Amino acid sequence: MLDKNIANDIIFEALSLGADFCDIFVEKTNIQNFSYISSKVKNIQSGTDFGIGVRLIFGTVGLYGYTNSNTKEDLITLTRKLAASYKKENNRQIQNYKFENALQYKDIKAFGAGNFSFDYKIEKIKELDKLTRAKSDLVSQVSLSVLQKETNVEIFDSEGLYATEFRPYVRLITNAITSDGNEQASGTWHPGARGGFEYINGLDMDEIATEIVRQSVTTLKADAAPAGNMPVIIDNGFGGVIFHEACGHLLETTSVEKKASVLWDKKGLKVGHENLNAVDDGTMDNEWGSISIDDEGMPTQRTQLIKNGVVENFLCDRLGHIKTGHPRTGSARRQSYKFAPASRMRNTFIEAGNYKLEDLITTVDDGIYAKKMGGGSVNPGTGEFNFSVQEGYLVKNGKIQNAIKGATLIGKGEDVLSKISMSANNFELATGMCGSVSGSIPTTVGQPAIKVDEILVGGRA
Q1: The pLDDT of residue 355
Q2: What is the separation of C-alpha 168 from the centre of its chain, rounded to a whole number of angstroms?
Q3: Do residues 451 and 231 make contact, with C-beta atoms less than 8 angstroms apart?
């Protein structure tokens, strides 16, 4: 996508201006998105975006800019503007690079694109719309979207690295709203993968329709949630969003380097229950958050974050390594060429334990079972978070009781880690989008069902 001679000239210019390091990120993305709302096709988006980002590092300072031009003149001008305030005399010999792609990394598998026409895709989603509406007379609205993009990236740097990767993404967004005339509720399921429409084509549409309507109707008829400190069982899959938000972000050097994380100095220390093991793994085939190389060109890896409650590693990019000394983990990610890379999560999850879900439930005398989690927020500096429970149930004397709605889980990440006392064996992953300093990126969360011995539950009952 970018002539190697031009890349060589850009890096030569950057180092001549005194930069300690320079890298170039080239990206071309094709998208095809559409929505199906009120049984009609809406919001069709398609097109191609191309751009190049240039980053200079002077000591611990990173300078970043981008352009949609791939000409030598424009890229040289961009490089000079970036270096204007920091340029210094260069005292080292600058070499010419061959930029041969000799990286050894795992080629992450992906679901194939298949030969599906746009009309076929619409018919497939129309089928899901009909199935969903037929599940209950209480269904008042169905919203469906297909998000699909294919991205090619190319990376050059002043250490002679040259790396490329093709990244296909596909995701189905589903939402069923039910109403009884007075209140309404929603049910959602957002499966996604590294791959093309072949993944969606292979999904069981009747299963999806059944599940999102079941969620919605259950919540519509649910009682108000109780409030107070109590034990909570958080089920698998998207339940992992709490670990992602309340702990995962605290282990990124993006916050660690600023000491803006309550875990910044906790490496090697026990911060969680001895049964807690957590991982961030970018190497998993077909998964939404997987990458063969990160956005600095480093091969991705499996990173053990917490082992038996002890902090083992942080997620670290190049600047994070320069500032903290922690090893790089292939975790530099960005939304697009418009953002500088930063340490970010990939597929982040709590590992499975040896219990059954029923074993966890039987240990609770008076608490709640959060079958499906919703959205929430966290303050990385304090670790304080709050998350909504999308589908929940009371638990009394070790048995699941009636459905509840309006529950919110409130706490601090570090406190919750020490109270995760049991992990089940029903491990599952779920897709999401994660926003941070380098934009919004595809990430996967996950866990088995876990027991939190005590957490503050907000409710209306």
Answers
A1: 96
A2: 15
A3: yes
**According to the model, what pLDDT value does residue 378 have?**
79
d(CA 284, CA 186) in angstroms, rounded, equals 31
Give the DSSP letter of residue 226. Answer: P
Do 197 and 216 sit in the same domain of this protein?
yes
* Domain boundaries, position 264: 228-458
Alpha helices in 17-137 (DSSP H): 72-83, 118-133
Strand partners, 379: 384
Average pLDDT of each block of 10 consecutive residues along the chain (461 residues)?
96 96 98 97 96 98 98 98 90 83 83 90 98 98 98 96 96 98 96 97 98 98 97 96 91 94 94 94 98 97 97 98 98 98 98 96 98 85 88 98 97 90 96 95 97 95 79
Strands lying side by side in the sheet with 428-436: 310-311, 302-307, 278-281, 347-350, 439-447, 428-436
Q: Tell me how long the chain is.
A: 461
Contact 414, 262 (CB under 8 A): yes
pTM above 0.85, yes or no: yes
Nearest 5°: the CA angle 66, 72, 76 is 60
Buried b / exposed e along 436-451 (16+ C-beta atoms within 10 A): bebbebbbbbbbbbbb
**Which contiguous run of DSSP H or E holds residue 138?**
none
Q: Could you tell me which of 62, 60, 111 has the C-alpha nearest to residue 83?
A: 62
Phi and psi (nearest 5°) for 104?
-105, 115
What is the four-CA torsion angle of 286, 205, 433, 369, rounded to 10 degrees? Answer: -110
* AA identity, residue 85: S
Which residues contact residue 355 at a Cβ distance below 8 angstroms, ignoring those fewer than 6 apart? 422, 423, 424, 425
Q: What is the pLDDT of residue 379?
A: 80
**Per the domain annotation, does 178 fall within a domain?**
yes
Structure tokens at 385: 């978070």
Specify the pairing of strand 342-343 against strand 192-194.
unpaired
Q: Which of 238, 215, 225 is nearest to 288 (CA)?
A: 238
Looking at residue 223, its pLDDT comes to 97
Q: Are residues 250 and 218 in the same domain?
A: no
Q: 41 phi and psi, to 5 degrees?
A: -75, 130
Distance CA 64, CA 54 (A): 6
CATH of the domain at 125: 3.30.160
Find the helix or strand (DSSP H, E) in which 390 lies: strand 384-396
Query: Beta strand 332-333 with 223-224: parallel, antiparallel or unpaired?
Result: unpaired
Residues 284 and 375 in one domain: yes
pLDDT at position 396 is 98
Q: Tell me which long-range contacts 91-94 makes (C-beta under 8 A, separation of at least 24).
A: 92/15, 94/12, 94/15, 94/16
